[in-house]
Amino acid sequence: MTAKHSNSTRGRTVARALVLGTALVALAACGGRDRPRADLAASQVTTIGVNSYLWRAALETVSFAPLLQADSAGGVIVTDWYVNPANPGERVKMTVAILDQDLRADAVRVAASRQVAQSGTWVDAPVQAATVQKLEDIILTKARDLRRQAIRG
């Protein structure tokens, strides 16, 4: 074998290696971040306009009171006045708003109104902030439980 033939063979081998290496790098760049992921119970379930776990949890949470409005596209639930039989001198009305498509703590807001009976008429009374926070926490806990149940199947 001559030196000229040996250099030619070595040159082809190096060229093939470079082409193969370039092709492998290009192919590796094609995959990456856009691979589909199996997410059986996504935190973003929005076939109704808002997060379905939050929606279902909110409906369950306020189901003790009569509903005036339930708009799943807009994510708003409004109850009518509810009088607890154990405390007939007080009534409450709630509005729940689902604000996002994701299952997040800041995606649910509860507003409550409270009235007390005085001399045969209903008078507005303050609602404790802890009451509203507790309702939001109950809704979030139920929504997370619903998602966990969906994951388990």
Task: Name a few traits of the molecule.
153 residues; alpha+beta; Alpha-D-Glucose-1,6-Bisphosphate, Chain A, domain 4
Indicate the topology:
Layout: H1 3-30, H2 52-61, E1 67-71, E2 76-79, E3 82-83, E4 90-98, E5 108-118, E6 121-125, H3 129-152
Antiparallel strand pairs: 1-2, 2-4, 3-4, 4-5, 5-6
Helix pairs in contact: 2-3
Please give a structural write-up.
- This protein has 153 residues and is α+β, with helices and mostly antiparallel strands.
- The chain folds into two domains: 3-34; 52-152, Alpha-D-Glucose-1,6-Bisphosphate, Chain A, domain 4.
- It is 41% helix and 24% strand.
- The protein contains three helices and six strands; from the N terminus they run ααββββββα.
- Strands 1, 2, 3, 4, 5 and 6 form a six-stranded antiparallel sheet that branches.
- The model is unreliable at 35-40 (pLDDT under 50).
